[in-house]
Design goal:
Layout lengths: L15 E2 L12 E2 L5 E3 L5 E3 L18 E4 L11 E3 L6 E8 L4 E6 L31 H16 L10 E8 L2 E7 L3 E5 L6 E2 L3 E9 L11 E4 L5 E3 L2 E6 L6 E8 L10 E4 L2 E6 L4 E2 L12 E6 L15 E6 L5 E4 L4 E4 L12 E5 L2 E5 L5 E3 L15 E3 L1
């Protein structure tokens, strides 16, 4: 009897989950229903490793406990904090073994130090030289104490301090940022101490500018003749006109201090360079909605080199749109809006991308605009920007 030929075929599981395409058109390697797997950062999916809370602090799963021998462990209580009598080490008791007089403890998150022989915790005394490497002699107990230690630090990982929603999360220059919506919308950054709000930035617009290139460069002090406001420029953006004749634009500076007034002369070194077209105001962020999620992109535009207050040697910027406000940029230090020239009520892009040194913004009206070559802040047709339909 002739047996049929056996044919084999290898299918690489590199696609991910596809819940939209008709089954007949789902490409090989994509799944239509997945269980016990998660997205792979390099594409496709993998065995589920799990997710953890994050706020910039060390990952809870990386923590373990420290073990110390005391004279009488029954004198201590799980969940209490101690300050050791000799070393001054501050710790938290996460577990106790009264049979072996062993105590498992953790450092408080912001403290480092080492217990010493003879240290009194709260009521018990250290009787053996403590060491970081010591673990409970019983393997099962060791695993449970590890879990308790991780849970202790896991409880210290918190969400940004807002009353509403985290709208988007993105990374720039090794740090993680979250766009959060509460009473107002703020940008938060992760740190060793958890989420920290980014200080906002002020902006003032001007026209009638006789300034020359570099007059409003980053770090230059600009003074208002009427208000007396005096601020150091963080980022200057020219939106139109000719240097030395009729420049229009805006610049940003640190929040605080005396605001610039409307219609006042802006001076550098006692010489008038431009006139404000309105008062200086704090840059307002928009959060988007459940239908319009923030979209982010990072890019290094060479033309903005030397105009970044944060780090002139690394001009990688973060850009985003939310579908409910102007496009925004952030250099790791300060915010700066991007105006395309449309009326503010219409200057609300919902899509963003960078291609060949152009910043592209997409609008729900069907308009697609790109910046001038190499300058994401310039949307003037005179410098190469354009609008497509």
């Amino acid at each position: 009897m002739t047996l049929p030929n056996v044919k084999t075929k290898t299918i690489m599981l590199h696609g991910g989950l596809d819940l939209e395409s008709p089954s007949i058109s789902v490409p090989e390697g994509f799944g239509t229903e997945l269980m016990n797997v998660e997205p792979n950062l390099m594409g496709g999916y993998r065995k589920m490793l799990g997710y953890e809370r994050y706020d910039g602090q060390r990952s809870p799963s990386e923590h373990s406990y420290s073990l110390v021998q005391v004279d009488d462990a029954s004198l201590e209580t799980v969940g209490t904090t101690f300050t050791a009598s000799i070393s001054g080490t501050v710790g938290y008791i996460i577990s106790i073994d009264t049979d072996l007089n062993l105590i498992g403890w953790n450092y408080q998150p912001s403290y480092t130090g080492q217990l010493e022989l003879g240290d009194v915790l709260i009521n018990s005394t250290v009787t053996e030289d403590p060491t970081f490497s010591a673990i409970h002699p019983d393997p099962d107990t060791d695993v449970l104490w590890d879990l308790e230690a991780q849970n202790y630090f896991r409880d210290g990982i918190s969400a940004p301090d807002v009353t509403s929603h985290v709208r988007g999360v993105w990374r720039l220059k090794g740090k993680t940022y979250a766009l959060v919506e509460g009473t107002t919308t703020e940008l938060h950054v992760s740190s060793d101490n958890g989420w920290i709000p980014i200080l906002s930035t002020d902006i003032v617009h001007f026209d009638a500018g006789t300034l020359e290139e570099g007059d409003f460069a980053n770090g230059v002090t600009v003074t208002g003749l009427t208000s007396g406001a005096s601020e150091s420029v963080i980022r200057f953006v020219k939106t139109g006109g000719t240097y030395g004749v009729d420049v229009t634009g805006y610049f940003t500076f640190n929040l605080g201090g005396t605001p610039f007034s409307s219609g006042e002369a802006l001076q550098v070194g006692g010489v008038t360079k431009a006139t404000t077209t309105g008062i200086s105001e704090e840059i307002a962020l928009s959060a988007g909605s459940f239908l319009d999620r923030p979209v982010f992109v990072n890019y290094n535009f060479p033309s903005t080199l030397n105009n970044s207050f944060f780090d002139p040697t690394d001009n990688m910027l973060m850009f985003w749109v939310t579908g409910s406000g102007t496009a925004m940029s952030f250099d790791g230090f300060s915010l700066c809006p991007i105006f395309t020239g449309l009326p503010l009520a219409d200057d609300i892009p919902s899509a963003i991308e960078v291609y060949k040194n152009y910043l592209f913004l997409g609008f729900k009206s069907g308009s697609l605009q790109h910046s001038s070559l190499g300058d994401p802040f310039s949307f003037s047709p005179l410098t190469g920007a354009a609008e497509l339909y």
